[in-house]
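Quarterly update from the structural biology core.
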Amino acid sequence: MITQGMLEELREFDTALLANTIGYVDGASADLYLSGAIQSVTPALGPTVGIAFTCELDSSTPGNIADADLFWDQLEEMSQQILPAVWVVKVVGSRPDHECVLGDGMAKTLYSVGCRGVVSDGRVRDVAGLLTTPFAAYCRGTAIHHTPLRFCAINGSVEVGGVTIRPGDVIHANGEGVIRIPSKWVASLPESAVRMRAFEHEAHMALRRSDLGVRQKRRRVEELVAKYGFADCVASQNAKAPQEKTTMNNVLHQT
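Predicted structure, tokenized:
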């Protein structure tokens, strides 16, 4: 069971470090991180961590008839949740570049029931108001207005930023992007992330040195992989995909 303490621990780490850690211990990455089209418009507020509440929303189709009943239902559900929520909004309107899923009024309402941010392939407005709420937004940018909001579905799987997100998934985001954390790693990830942070610190000190040759740097990084307990993970990944053995190139990329 995911607890408040687990989510609070995850807030101590930046999102890229957690993505690196999952990549080392699980070998998974492609279905975890959202595309670069989903950007923070409130980078000062991260990291944002919470349980996904999903919906599909049309905020751009001309002639929309407003229908917010499902939104109010979802707010009620959030208010019953003791863990922080992240609202994940898939836009389904006919004009994708005109989708604007919320402003600071909706953000204040969401925040009041325990929601700490939105992740969407739409846009938002009233960024100054979001910052003072404070309510984080990860989306495709800003849009000045929207048509009447028509909520089409809630609590189903949605694809945002090329990743399928399901209700109850753990979302972690900061100024550089958004990831979905597999539930099996939520409890143990902080301990592994502490080791990853220490590994990266020592590896970076070696990699920036101009008095070490390339081969020396490679050996040093490999030693550090073993020192911090990731060697078995790397070996296991190599055994599964021998054609993609760990090289200096991908070690560099994951530090």
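The chain has two domains: 31-182, 189-253.
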